[in-house]
Amino acid sequence: MSEAEGQFYSVQVGDSTFTVLKRYQQLRAIGSGAQGIVCSALDEVLGIPVAVKKLCRPFQNQTHAKRAYRELVLLKCVNHKNIIRLINVFTPQKSLEEFQDLYLVMELMDASLCQVIHMDLDHERMSYLLYQILCGIRHLHSAGIIHRDLKPSNIVVKSDCTLKILDFGLARTACTNFMMTPYVVTRYYRAPEVILGMKYKENEHDKLKTGQARDLLSKMLVIDPECRISVEEALNHPYIHVWYDPAEADAPPPQISDKQLEEREHTIEQWKELIYEEVIDWEERNKNGLMKEDCSGTELHHLHWLSAVLCHTAGGGEVSKHS
Predict the structure, then answer these.
(1) Locate the Protein kinase domain: which residues (predicted)?
(2) Which CATH number does the domain housing residue 54 bear?
(3) 281 vs 69, 258, 274, 289, CA distance in Å?
């Protein structure tokens, strides 16, 4: 890689060894899952806290390798206020032959929706969170991206009430008509058509994942995907339409660099080469690892409520979920 060997150092985090750029200090484990292990860190170059994700055994088999490639490609192309932002990508290995570890650096959030939903939320906050989920889903769907694993642990929130969707290892690009795999999505968050192994129609699956108010909930949980409320209709529902901002809800769709992503079938070594090329491409286009420009448009109201509640419920400790 273009980074000199002396710019890396190793630190033990739980049972895993992180070998990261020296700009990332104060690593602390904050989450883990099937796709990777995540630490919080201080980026001394940008002067901000970040989340550093080490992908788990990305080249163990073809499935792991394809998921790693998919997550990297999709994160590189998506730029929306309600989708987690990729800040940097790197590997400590210096050549394709040595390439084994892949690290993704993203924004550090304060809590997952798993924690937030147990807080005392009023309708203003619930509707704002729901609005942001729908904006993120709509942005993904506009590019034919289907998340496939949208659940509270894959949705994170900052103390100003900004919400973001993360974890794209299981996502699909809907450029082909395929059967949805029923065991990909966490059981309690599967749509009926997924459980029944029915053909996946456009982007119906993700729409089932959200809903707070009774009327909107009843429309979003309709069994028949043909009759289920669309994302666009939900965004215009009175419960959340007060937040509507075209710059967020109608943001231009991301341009996917690999249009045949889902049709690709490669050996592990071929996937490794593709991922390595993506890392090199990132380095060339982001020499300083600088954050992509925020395309959020007009800022909405900041609701500084989460940090106070977190301090009360978690003893003041920082909580995050990025795995």
Answers:
(1) 24-323
(2) 3.30.200.20
(3) 13, 14, 10, 12
Specify the number of domains making up the chain: 2
290: in domain? no
User: Is residue 122 annotated as part of the catalytic site, yes or no?
Assistant: no
Residue 48 belongs to some domain of the structure: yes
Q: Is residue 71 part of a domain?
A: yes
Q: Quick: pLDDT tens for 7-20.
A: 999 999 988 999 99
Of the chain, the percentage scoring pLDDT greater than 90 comes to 39
Domain encompassing residue 46: 8-108
Residues 137 and 246 in one domain: yes
Q: Are residues 97 and 224 in the same domain?
A: no
Dihedral sign computed on CA atoms, order 60, 62, 67, 69:
positive
Q: CA-to-CA distance for 129 and 132, rounded, in angstroms?
A: 5
Report how far residue 87's alpha carbon sits from residue 89's, in angstroms, rounded to the nearest whole number: 7
pTM greater than 0.90 (yes/no):
no
One domain, residues 116 and 246: yes
Which of the residues 43, 101, 110, 149 is marked catalytic?
A: 149
- Residue of higher predicted confidence among 283 and 287: 283
Tell me if 128 sits within 8 A of 81, measured CB to CB.
no
Is the same domain home to 78 and 93? yes
Q: Cα(213)–Cα(64) distance, rounded to whole angstroms?
A: 38
Which pLDDT belongs to residue 294? 43
Residue 194 has what pLDDT?
59
